[in-house]
Design a protein that fits this description.
Number of domains: 1
Distance between the termini: 26 Å
CATH topology: Bacillus phage protein
Structural class: alpha+beta
Strand order of the largest sheet: 1-2-3
Radius of gyration: 14 Å
Helix content: 25-40%
Oligomer: single chain
Shape: globular
CATH architecture: 2-Layer Sandwich
Number of strands: 6
Amino acid sequence: MTDRELLELAAKAAGIQPVYCYESRRNCLRVGDKKSYVIWRPLTDDGDALRLAVKLGIDIGFGFDEQDRVVCILIDGAATYASQYENDIYFATRLAIVRAAAEIGRTTPDRTQPVEVTP
């Protein structure tokens, strides 16, 4: 799945719409319309990722064993996604949150009413 698809599904899960466009150079979505929009980038912004996790009730856990360090995403008490990391635990955590949110977005029905987005 591309970053764009991940972000669009994660936005859908969080009720963030309308999505105006995707900017590949900044790996973000513009949310709103042409005249008034905010940049949303949970893959690169810790704050956007944390707000996404809180809104969706995603629990984040960290596990270690002899070979792997893992970020675990828990939804309703069950591990649903894990991401290994070596050097950048922050990136791995953001990625795990967005991937979990995208999975939630796959099963979320489309909303017809725009939802207000606050930066």
